[in-house]
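Design review, sub-item: ligand-bound model
Attendees: FS, YL, KQ
YL presented the inputs for the zinc ion complex:
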Amino acid sequence: MRRALVYRLLVTLVLVLSLASVALAEGPPHWTYEGKEGPEFWGSLSQDYALCSTGKQQSPVDIPASAVTNPADLTFRYQPSKLNILNNGHTIQAAYDAGSSLVVDGVTYNLAQFHFHLPSEHTLTAKPYDMELHLVHQNAQGGLAVVGIMLKSGAENKALASVFANAPKQETAVMTVPNATVNAADFLPATRTYWRYNGSLTTPPCSEGVKWHVLTTPVEVSPAQIAAYKSLFTDDHRPVQPLNARSFLLASQVAAAPQAMPTTGAAQPASARDMLILLGLVCLSLGLGGYTIVRRRIREN
Ligand SMILES: [Zn+2]
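KQ shared the predicted structure:
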């Protein structure tokens, strides 16, 4: 009787350990913008992506005409950077050199990278723009603040010219383009009023706690620049998500309220491991509990 229980316990342990090793060996699951791995299925591709379907504060969203507009009170401290560009299979992205930041609610967020979506992810009264530029910033605690700039067809955008001209056609690791620089300060429109709300990453794992700032004034890119991007990514936008209980925020009111703890992508890689360790501990305690009960019964009989 006792030997059978020990055997069952051992089998459970081996099962839990092998499951854990399989889960840790695999990288993040593949996802796309269309088909069976498209946005409506992201949440079921991996436990790590669950928020993509269960989250209640997801991005992007539609910005209604009634959304409150903040005055131009964001502090941009942007410096030029070398052009460190990559094609990650989902977007064209540029890693930004250290030393540029955005100040939100008195907290400094360092500009980490910028990338694009076609068409825009946020919509304005249900209408998308041609493209959207995302400037992604991270604070010392891993909290994220993103600035979204709408791009519309018009004059050539000289500030983005080197980016479009050097966009890798195939999926690549990051590469620094010789003699090319970018300055995010030149991406910004002259008017910097913005809509603000709390949302998420718009790609898996769809982590929430992201402070979103969508500038109300679009900037122009030429039809040729849009076509150059479209030749690489015909459509790399996530559809708008329900606003649920959220509202658009005025920075002056947010600054006075207590800060919520951010949940960011930076915390994600550990989550699957933590879940498995927890599962292992639960199995172990169930096994030990069962063993103790049966032992007591044997003694009582
Ligand atoms: Zn983005």
